[in-house]
Amino acid sequence: MGAGHDHHGGIAHAAQRHTGRLWAAFGLLATLMVVEAVTALGTGSLALLSDAGHMFTDVLGIGMALAAITAARRAGRDPQRTFGLYRLEVLAALANAVLLSGVAVYVLVEAVRRFGDPPEVTTGPMLVVATLGLLANLVAFALLREGAKESINLRGAYLEVVADLLGSVGVITAAVVIALTDWWWADPLVAVAIGVFILPRTWRLGRAALRILVQAAPEHLQVSAVRDRLSAVPGVVEVHDLHLWTLTSGMEVASAHLTTDPAVEVGSVLAAARTALHEDFHIDHATLQVEPGESPGVCGRVEW
């Protein structure tokens, strides 16, 4: 005997709730990305080029978030996709992390090459465009901040905007230093600082996405604690075949087999178990199979 509780169909998913803000951030950053790239090529600034590259990954990441939202909505109407396409946002976050890592590595390599013979850069346009980039990132930061708390995909775009915001500050600093002192090493030095700052954060995002894709238990949930709590439900004798995983951001899922005292009423055990998972661990999607203790052979155990 078993029971499942599914709230996915009624979820107002975080990314979907913030679609309007995503489109606004997408348009703003795409425009500034083109301006920064053209100006970087014209001025010869590696720092500004690195900032344009990071802004490109911002735009691409937000674009993938919007694509994932659209696909997830359409998949909701396909009965063969019983979990929808929520995992698309996790794949988008992973792709985001890979792309941003590639840009950061390229900038680091190019910066090291330039340290030997730093080229002259034109600081006037560099300063103006970097300031515009800073303003654009401040607006995008405000637009994405709320959604980043709920969605791993939005968190990826948000982290890139934060990094790009700091990158714009670095480019402005380099432009001012070069303009005042003619110290051309400021440009590749700032580019290196941006790359070093971004890489660890990018790797953490990629690790979080991979953890979801391999269906590891959520880091904030201890499997032993969930097992002990279910075992403490009145009437439960043993808990086995317990699995915990994350479908997508904010959607933890559990399945378990509960061996019960033959005298207890199955409905009350299921209700108490679901309540325990919800109140203690915020798990709202659980599939529980109840096996009365006097019914041997009901469950063929699978050791996964």
Question: Nutshell version of this structure?
Answer:
One of its GO terms (molecular function) is zinc ion transmembrane transporter activity. The protein has helices at 14-17, 19-43, 46-75, 87-115, 123-148, 152-181, 186-213, 223-231, 266-281; strands spanning 2-5, 236-248, 251-260, 285-292.
Along the chain, the helix and strand elements come as EHHHHHHHHEEHE
What composes the largest sheet? 4 strands, mixed
Biggest sheet strand line-up: 1-4-3-2
CATH topology of the largest domain: Alpha-lytic protease prodomain-like
Content of β-strand: 5-15%
Principal-axis shape: elongated
Gyration radius (Cα, Å) is 25 Å
Question: For this structure, what is the CATH class of the largest domain?
Answer: Mainly Alpha
Q: Report, as a whole number of angstroms, the end-to-end distance.
A: 21 Å
Question: Count the strands?
Answer: 4
* CATH evolutionary superfamily of the largest domain: Cation efflux protein transmembrane domain
Determine the fraction of residues in helical runs and give it as a percent range.
55-70%
How many helices in DSSP terms?
9
Mean pLDDT: 82
CATH architecture assignment name of the largest domain:
Up-down Bundle
How many structural domains are formed by the residues?
2
